[in-house]
Design brief:
68% of the residues lie in helices and 0% in strands. It is mostly helical. It has a domain of 69 residues. The longest helix is centred in the last third of the chain and has 28 residues. The C terminus is likely disordered. This is Transcriptional regulator.
Length: 142
């Protein structure tokens, strides 16, 4: 790669963009909700409970319906996972995380489209439908 003034200008613009993103309200909300969630004793207990029931289920999972208490342990995992996911602090964090990810997806989309309409973008978000996507790799199998 040849380093010329254009490269340095692009680097400067990207640094400004990165700084603007880091100073945004979405990033502040994300970081704040992350710290609040991780300091919560209730969330820590829910995570611990989830880990325990998940590990108990994983021990019998390979045996499927033939394992004793398979259905009960599977239900227990789902119940504890739901309790964790519906906790206000966890759901607030997940909302802020998704909002930040959406902003980053849109920025990526805008940058790619400013270069060429033919650039395919894999946003990793099934709701990010306006982006032209790749073939998922299956078109390259020959």
């Amino acid at each position: 790669m040849i380093f010329n003034e254009t490269v340095f200008e692009v680097e400067s613009i990207l640094t400004e963009l990165s700084n603007s993103i880091n100073e945004s309200q979405l990033v502040a909300d994300y970081i704040s909700s992350y710290h609040v969630m991780n300091k919560s004793d209730e969330v820590a207990k829910l995570r611990k409970d989830f880990k325990e029931v998940k590990e108990a289920f994983e021990k019998i999972e390979p045996y499927g319906k033939y394992a004793p208490d398979f259905k009960e342990k599977r239900r227990a995992v789902r119940k504890v996972k739901r309790e964790l996911d519906t906790n206000e602090l966890v759901s607030n964090f997940k909302f802020n995380e998704t909002s930040l990810q959406n902003m980053l997806d849109y920025i990526t989309f805008d940058i790619a489209k400013s270069i060429s309409d033919d650039i395919k973008i894999d946003a990793g978000n099934p709701f990010f439908e306006f982006a032209k996507r790749g073939c998922g790799g299956s078109c390259h199998v020959g």
